[in-house]
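User: Please predict the structure of the protein below. I'd like the answer in structure-token form so I can feed it into my own downstream comparison script.

Assistant: Understood. Taking the following sequence of 344 residues as input:
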Amino acid sequence: MAKSILVIQILCLLLFNADKFATADAHETTSLFVKRDEYKNDLTRIIRRVEDLESSNDVIKSENRKLQDEVTSLKTFISSLDAENRRTVSDLQSQISDLQVANKQNEQIIQSIVSTLQSDIKENTSNFPSQTYALQSENKDTLVDIASQTNWTQSAPQYEQLHESQRKGYPVTNISASGFKTGQTQKRLTGHKGYRITRAENEANIAFYATVGNHHIEHAGVNQNIIFDHVITNLGNAYNKYAGDFKAPVSGTYVFSVTLMAYNTQSTHYRIAKNGTVMGNLYLHGKDGSDATSAMTAVLQLQQGDDVSIQNLDADKNLHGYAYSTFSGFLLQQDYSSTAIVGK
């Protein structure tokens, strides 16, 4: 458009000077022709410049359209990023909230465990002096009965030495009264003429009984101990309700019993393990409409410190709780070949 207007203006200028060509003399005519040629050259240069400018303008317009398209794309991308960021922030806030709830629950569980441990420690500490006094009194009464019922005439130092040996947990083996056997004491029964034969070393009273509490055990792993967390009896405190295992305080023969109930229709394998080695297997075959049970009794010879537990053998299994699954055991016969006793 600008090019056309410029050409029209130059043509009007030439027509305006046409009258001068008609009235001019030869010299003026020559001068006018020179100016005309200069005008024409100027016009040519101007036209080329205008063409260059129009070409540049077209390029600028094309680049401007591209830039506008890129700006539109960037706006769309930024909008999608904003939406994604909002979703991410929302997810993070939800996860933080879940973690805070889980952390609060874990703190409550830890506080409960600490409170239970403190209560157990307090109870054991408070019972220890009375148990020690009762044990010493019983040992003293036994020795008095030995002396009075068998006409035993040993000197006072020998009596004190015997009492000290028994108090420390060593078997009494040097009494030669009639009817006595090595490692045994004799005591008259109240209101009877007969005698009761008791083991001098058999002071360890060890027995426990525990159940799975008011919950089910879910998603148990392979070789995982079953935690019987509701302890009803724990004489000797040899059963650990947090680890689900029993550690023998003294060497001897122990009897263990376990009863398990299947969770709904799940079929699962379990074992009674001594130091991680299988001593017997149980199988629960769950059925529709009924919860199957399986039970076992095992008599095991244990050394002091041996570990006995009930372990799950299959991955991701459940077990019925609410006192339907139980674990118990007791010391049947102490082994006197070793005089070491835990806690003495």
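That's the full token string. Residues 184 and 261 are 44 Å apart (CA to CA).
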